[in-house]
Specification:
Elements (H helix, E strand, L loop, with lengths): L1 H11 L17 E6 L3 H13 L4 E5 L10 E3 L5 E3 L6 E3 L2 H7 L5 E3 L4 E5 L2 E5 L3 H8 L6 H11 L9 H26 L8 H4 L17 E5 L3 H9 L4 E5 L12 E6 L3 H4 L9 E11 L9 E3 L9 E4 H5 L6 E9 L6 E2 L3 H15 L4 E3 L1 H4 L6 H19 L6
Parallel strand pairs: 1-2, 1-11, 2-10, 7-13, 11-17
Antiparallel strand pairs: 3-4, 5-9, 6-9, 7-8, 12-15, 12-16, 13-14, 14-15
Bound molecules: flavin-adenine dinucleotide (FAD) and uridine-5'-diphosphate.
Length: 400
């Protein structure tokens, strides 16, 4: 099995990576062992190595770097995101400037349509959505606001993902756009989920149909994996993919571990399992240049088993005579993708977080490591802040 994993290693990484095996000489030790080569692990590896002068070993159990943002050229030579559409957006100038050291960007503003019966309507709900759905002619923000206010059902307090939507747009629009999608995505009714989940999606009275309004919205020009290659390409960094932490943890390779996998897994699920939502993808290539009008179509109806369909060429700008799409299905089983925001899960996480605070030999970062429904830019911000804390605690070889 080890041999098989190592084969994947050499196939998946460019030659300039110094890929070792987990059977290392006792003298081959590191300042840090970083578990996970996604944004959290890779940003920390880069900072510790390049800024801190530390020697770092990064392992990931997947056969590639990049974590959930990993992209690659499929059999038709079309750049696709293996784990679903990843659109970079942030309001943080610092985060954008930091990542810009490793990639140029392609400006891209994301737009999504929701399939409702035969109609494809802008989501987030905006004035165009209302006019098309109800055959209206709302001509101003004020008219749209009045239309929504007539339907909104005030909820006090606003606690759940159902409350958030109902209080803005009322029960009918809630059922049309949110109820089914959320049940499919999370396996829970919106009334069982923290309000923060559907609060990610605003309601608009104007005709702005962009999914995000952040100051910086762009895709890494050569793709995410390319950007990660540049981040991790440093003499102080060794990358071992296809390697689970479980195979390394007893080898004493480093005094300090940075863990970006599920925190409950690190502690042997001692307080019980934290629930994570998983996803399954089916990828297809079609013999047409373009299949969809926008990158993503959401399917709020429970009659359709998937939640969304993505056509990647919209995101990447690639010119190609064929096109690749993916269907996204949520599932309870499989690799963890999403922490599930609800009070009882947060309480369980707090037990792990309290235990983690007592441990000086390990630091938890990232979406799985801190059980937070974070976007990429938030994970980068969290990793940069973690680096500053470690630097202050452990010092660096270089004067900073
Ligand atoms: P991950 O990327 O999950 O990396 C953790 C890594 O740790 C994984 O590669 C895993 O294999 C490895 N690992 C775990 N346990 C072990 C172990 N025991 N041993 C070895 N390795 C281990 N964010 C946005 O900003 N915009 C978007 O459009 C967007 N779209 C998304 C769409 C989907 C379908 C999903 C799932 C997420 C999306 N996100 C998006 C969020 C984004 O993916 C995350 O914020 C970010 O990738 C998290 O980085 P991370 O390093 O914390 O975690
Ligand atoms: N959501 C929905 N209908 C939609 C889009 C989103 O009900 O058409 C809800 C759903 O609960 C989803 C959440 O809003 O999980 C957040 O959506 P987002 O697109 O941010 O999810 P992600 O890209 O993180 O999967």
């Amino acid at each position: 099995e080890q041999a098989a994993a190592q084969k994947i290693v050499s196939a998946a990484l460019p030659e300039r990576f110094r890929v070792g095996t987990s059977r290392r000489a006792p003298s081959d030790t590191y300042d840090y062992l970083i578990v996970g080569a996604g944004f959290a692990g890779s940003v920390l590896a880069e900072r510790l190595a390049a800024d801190g002068g530390k020697k770092v070993l990064v392992c990931d159990r997947r056969p590639h770097i990049g974590g959930n943002t990993y992209d690659h050229y499929d059999e038709a030579a079309i750049l696709v995101h293996k784990y679903g559409p990843h659109i970079f957006h942030t309001n943080s100038e610092d985060v954008f400037a930091y990542l810009s050291r490793f990639t140029a960007w392609r400006p891209y503003e994301h737009r999504v349509l929701a399939q409702v019966g035969d109609l494809r309507l802008p989501i987030p709900i905006n004035r165009t959505t209302l006019n098309a759905l109800y055959n209206l002619d709302l001509a101003s923000d004020a008219e749209a606001a009045r239309f929504l206010a007539d339907r909104a059902e005030p909820c006090d307090p606003l606690k759940t993902s159902r409350d958030v939507v109902i209080s803005q747009v009322g029960a009918e629009l809630y059922r049309t756009f949110f109820e089914g999608y959320t049940r499919k995505q999370w396996g829970l009714d919106p009334s069982e989920l923290d309000r923060s989940v559907t609060a990610r999606i605003p309601t608009r009275t104007n005709t702005d149909d962009r999914y995000f309004l952040d100051r910086f919205q762009a895709m890494p020009l050569g793709g995410y994996t390319r950007m990660f290659e540049r981040m991790l390409n440093h003499d102080n960094i060794t990358v071992l993919v296809g390697t689970d932490f479980a195979d390394l943890r007893r080898e004493g390779l480093a005094d300090h571990t940075i863990f970006t996998g599920p925190i409950d897994e690190y502690f042997g699920h001692c307080f019980g399992r934290l629930p994570y939502r998983s996803l399954k993808f089916t990828h297809e290539t079609h013999d047409v240049r373009r299949l969809l009008p926008v990158a993503v179509i959401n399917y709020p109806s429970e009659d359709v088993p998937y939640t969304r369909v993505t056509e990647y060429k919209h995101l990447t700008g690639q010119v190609h005579p064929r096109t690749s799409i993916s269907y996204e299905y949520a599932s309870a089983e499989g690799e963890p993708y999403y922490p599930i925001p609800r009070p009882e899960n947060q309480a369980l996480y707090k037990q792990y977080e309290t235990l983690a605070r007592t441990r000086v030999d390990v630091t938890f970062v990232g979406r799985l490591g801190t059980y937070k429904y974070y976007n990429m830019d938030q994970v980068v911000g969290q990793a940069l802040a973690t680096y500053r804390r470690l630097r202050d605690r452990h010092g660096t070889r270089r004067a900073l």
